[in-house]
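INFO batch 0412 | record 1 of 1 | parsing
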Amino acid sequence: MSYEFNLSGMAGDLTVFGILGFVTGYVMKKLAKLVLALLGAYIMSLYYLQSKGVITINQDALFNLSKQATNFVLTLGQKIIGILPSVGGFAVGFALGFQRG
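INFO prediction complete | emitting tokens
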């Protein structure tokens, strides 16, 4: 029983998935900043309209909706990371990309 250890193949996988992870993390952080800024502007506009008496806001429903959206995003992220091969290289690259973004 002879097992060969192919270091070059493993290093190639780690490098490719590390680079993909870095790019994904970088883009995700930039995208998250944009989405949060737009969401904040939208909510501020709703509260402005409420202060002028144009609309009324059911705050419990609004906060419940944001809680559901947060849970959806977190579970989606866990599913994506769970199905990726070479998670180690991808995870390290993602963390570095998210930190730099």
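INFO post-check: Residues 28 and 34 are 10 Å apart (CA to CA).
INFO record closed
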